[in-house]
Amino acid sequence: MIANPRGFARWEDWAHQAQQILTPFMTRVETAFFRQGQVLRLARHSVAALPDPAPPGRLIYLSDDSGGAVIAFSDGTAWRRMTDRTVVS
Is the Cβ–Cβ distance between 23 and 35 less than 8 Å? Predict the structure, then answer.
């Protein structure tokens, strides 16, 4: 967690600590999402073969939803369409 800047005598000291925390974090985020400049490819699933929605926060490409192909996300208990947040059917 980034410390409150009021706890530092100099602004530069706080900024240095924030940089020490944020740089490795942002490097991990960049590696996870950008994969060295390549386009992110989502796992492809059908409604009949949806994976368990736990843990929350995952994305999939759903090829045969009732309204057509759509990207869906897991909320931990269900897969929901990105377009309108309704449960996949």
Answer: no
How many whole angstroms from its chain centre is CA 20?
Answer: 23
As a dihedral over the C-alpha atoms of residue 52, residue 56, residue 61, residue 65, rounded to 10 degrees, the angle is 70
H or E stretch at 74? strand 70-74
Amino acid symbol at 62:
L
Rounded CA gap, 20 and 26, in Å?
Answer: 11
pLDDT digits (tens, 9 = 90+) for 4-49: 888 888 888 888 888 888 888 887 777 776 666 667 778 999 999 9
* Whole-number pLDDT of residue 19: 86
